[in-house]
Design a protein that fits this description.
The protein is α/β, with parallel strands linked by helices. The chain contains 11 helices and 6 strands. It folds into 2 domains: 170 residues, 3-Layer(aba) Sandwich (Rossmann fold); 66 residues, DNA polymerase, domain 1 (Orthogonal Bundle), CATH 1.10.150. Strands 3-2-1-4-5-6 form a 6-stranded parallel beta sheet. Helix 9 links the parallel strand 4 and strand 5. The structure holds magnesium ion. The site of magnesium ion has 9 residues, from loops.
Length: 246
């Protein structure tokens, strides 16, 4: 069975005897919110007038980086210019303005059910996002009430480096006070998967966007699910399989 094989591969690779999931480290954009289209559009509207040549699709591959890191990367690549943090903050404010002008973002279909299954299995949900998008962070408690306690949120305000560094997920482990083999990561983006794997956590990718599933496998995902509703259907059996490794 695919799940059992993925678990065995993880245990062999990390030389740990078992996975005992106590916390789920959960990404926000593309996992809890169907927000990537708006992010892409806002980036595009911000950067094209500044002379940055970019395609809309490439922003799906940058997903997970902090805003400043994306801006620095693109200006360095295109103009060989190293922007200061202040310059990045100004540009990010323009992106945030465009983002807020776009049609309201809906919660990801199936995400609520996924979270309820996580909680019903006695697993602590921890938010781990590189996002500093105030409009979405503020909506979390409204759209997902009583899911993410304040002490269990990692956002752009906490992280210095951002994904694909393991830093945000290591912070998530630390906030949940668990070891790597006592958690799972739930991601949708290749760079986020790289971050979860680098933190040595069993990393589940849910493919909610336009990228091929292969990009998530190649990033190192332990398991890839084709959509959020399908993952929500499988949460109970996945957790049971993980707990059976004890
Ligand atoms: Mg994401």
């Amino acid at each position: 069975m695919l799940v059992n094989k993925a678990i065995k591969n993880y245990l062999d690779k990390h030389q740990v005897p078992c996975i005992t999931p106590k916390a789920a480290l959960i990404d926000m954009d593309g996992v809890l919110y169907d927000s990537m289209k708006n992010h892409v559009e806002a980036w595009y509207r911000t950067l094209i007038p500044m002379g940055i040549k970019c395609s809309k699709d490439e922003f799906y591959l940058y997903e997970g980086r902090t805003g400043n890191s994306t801006i620095k990367y693109l200006f360095d690549k295109q103009f060989n210019r190293q922007l200061t943090d202040e310059e990045c903050t100004e540009i990010y404010a323009i992106k945030e303005k465009y983002f807020n002008e776009l049609p309201e973002i809906a919660p990801m279909p199936g995400a609520d059910r996924m979270l309820q299954r996580i909680i019903a299995n006695g697993i602590r949900p921890v938010l781990v996002t590189g996002s500093g998008q105030g409009s979405l962070l503020d909506r979390l408690d409204h759209d997902y009430p009583d899911v993410f306690a304040p002490a269990y949120k990692v956002t752009a305000y906490d992280v210095k480096v951002g994904k694909p560094s393991p830093e945000p997920y290591l912070m998530g482990l630390s906030k949940a006070r668990v070891n790597a083999n006592e958690a799972i990561v739930i991601e949708n983006a290749p760079l986020g998967v790289v971050a979860g794997v680098a933190a040595q956590v069993f990393t589940v990718a849910v493919n909610t966007g336009p990228i091929p599933a292969q990009a998530l496998t190649e990033a190192g995902a332990d398991l890839v699910y084709p959509s959020m509703p399908e993952f929500a259907d499988q949460v109970d059996s996945l957790i049971e399989s993980l707990r059976n490794t004890r």
